[in-house]
């Protein structure tokens, strides 16, 4: 399915579904993503959210920050709850979108079993994983997707020693109806991928990198610059997978025309969490990026 005409700031709906003022930290990547993403979903949707910064940001009824119904569940059961809510909607004859929206800890670690089952069954839900690359809500503990070398409160001296999970690749191995990677720094790209996901039957998975100022050790005004640097260095690629076929999208697709990308070191040096990262670790990361992008250039030339 081809993407329809792109949304811009000029034609993005002015209707707001998120009330002014919420409990996210200033500069939170998730809050940018949430406000814009919800515009693509529209009013007829139900969120299923496990414990995370999003639960805190949305707040509790009757002073919730969002106008749509939210079901807060347990960590392990997000995709199973969404499956049940969708079945109930079907039974009622309603086309309501059911959207599971969870963090990286809730997706790559604790909720992965229920998500894997829902993927295998091809449940007709949207699953969004916002990846701030640690358990932020409880004080920056390392998660499955925390990158190697990153300082967290549970990897406080020399950073995480293991390589982070490539969660989109794990999801892709389940052959979902639609998979897209997105960034909070390109919220309209996320908006349009979500619009597209709404038209597709089956499980749609969107994986979004969301910079987190306190967890990454950056100033609040650097959030957008950080997400862009992740894309421009080739560390975080924006793509879609449909019918098993991967296509780079938007800003990542445009990078194909460049002879070389920004050095990975630039991205690492912008963040306190990588201050223990050794030259060898940075060089290994650069080598991985170079190899992946050589593969893209071969494939898409
Ligand atoms: C079973 C269970 N274990 C631990 C917690 C405590 N807890 C609440 S939020 C959270 C962090 C979630 O991390 P992530 O999914 O990455 O979302 P983020 O906080 O980064 O937004 C944890 C560990 C919990 N509520 N339930
Ligand atoms: S800790 Fe990070 S993800 Fe959580 S609300 Fe603050 S900026 Fe957002
Ligand atoms: Mg997280």
Describe the protein's topology.
Layout: H1 29-41, E1 45-49, H2 53-58, E2 70-72, H3 78-91, E3 97-103, H4 104-109, H5 112-121, E4 126-131, H6 167-172, E5 178-183, H7 187-198, E6 204-209, H8 213-216, H9 223-232, E7 239-242, E8 245-248, H10 250-255, H11 264-269, H12 279-300
Helix pairs in contact: 1-7, 3-5
Features:
binds magnesium ion; binds thiamine diphosphate; globular; binds iron/sulfur cluster; 38% helix; 8 strands; alpha/beta; 301 residues; Rossmann fold; eight-stranded mixed beta sheet
Count of structural domains: 1
> What is the gyration radius calculated from CA atoms?
18 Å
Which bin fits the share of residues in helices?
A: 25-40%
Distance between the termini: 22 Å
- The number of distinct helices, counting runs of at least 4 residues, comes to 12
Q: Write the CATH architecture name.
A: 3-Layer(aba) Sandwich
Mean pLDDT: 95
CATH class category label: Alpha Beta
- The CATH topology corresponds to Rossmann fold
Structural class: alpha/beta
Note the beta-strand portion: 5-15%
Sheet with the most strands: spatial strand order: 2-1-3-4-6-5-7-8
What overall form do the CA principal axes indicate? globular
CATH superfamily: Thiamin diphosphate (ThDP)-binding fold, Pyr/PP domains
Query: What oligomeric assembly is this protein in?
Result: single chain
């Amino acid at each position: 399915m081809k993407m329809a005409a792109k949304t811009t700031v000029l034609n993005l709906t002015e209707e707001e579904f998120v009330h002014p003022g919420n409990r996210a930290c200033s500069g939170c990547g998730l809050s940018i993503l949430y406000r814009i993403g919800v515009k693509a979903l529209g009013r007829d949707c139900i969120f299923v959210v496990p414990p995370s910064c999003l639960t805190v940001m949305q707040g509790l009824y009757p002073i919730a920050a969002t106008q749509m119904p939210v079901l807060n569940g347990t960590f392990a059961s997000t995709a199973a709850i969404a499956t049940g809510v969708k079945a109930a909607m079907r039974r009622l004859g309603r086309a309501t979108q059911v959207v599971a929206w969870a963090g990286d800890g809730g997706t790559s670690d604790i909720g992965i079993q229920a998500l894997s089952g829902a993927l295998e069954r091809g449940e007709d839900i949207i699953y969004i994983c916002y990846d701030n690359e640690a358990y932020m809500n409880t004080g920056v503990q390392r998660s499955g997707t925390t990158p190697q070398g990153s300082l967290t409160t549970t990897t406080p001296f020399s950073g995480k020693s293991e390589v982070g999970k490539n969660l989109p690749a794990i999801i892709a191995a389940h052959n979902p109806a639609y998979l897209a990677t997105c960034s909070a720094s390109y919220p309209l790209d996320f908006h349009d991928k979500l619009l597209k996901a709404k038209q597709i039957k089956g499980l749609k998975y969107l994986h979004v990198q969301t910079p987190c100022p306190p967890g990454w050790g950056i100033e609040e005004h650097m959030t957008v610059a950080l997400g862009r640097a992740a894309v421009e260095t080739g560390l975080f690629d924006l793509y879609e997978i449909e019918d098993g076929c991967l296509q780079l999208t938007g800003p990542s697709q445009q990078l194909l025309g460049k002879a070389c990308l920004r050095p990975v070191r630039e991205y690492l040096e912008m963040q306190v969490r990588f201050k223990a990262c050794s030259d060898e670790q940075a060089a290994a990361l650069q080598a991985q990026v170079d190899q992946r992008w050589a593969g893209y250039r071969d494939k898409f030339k």
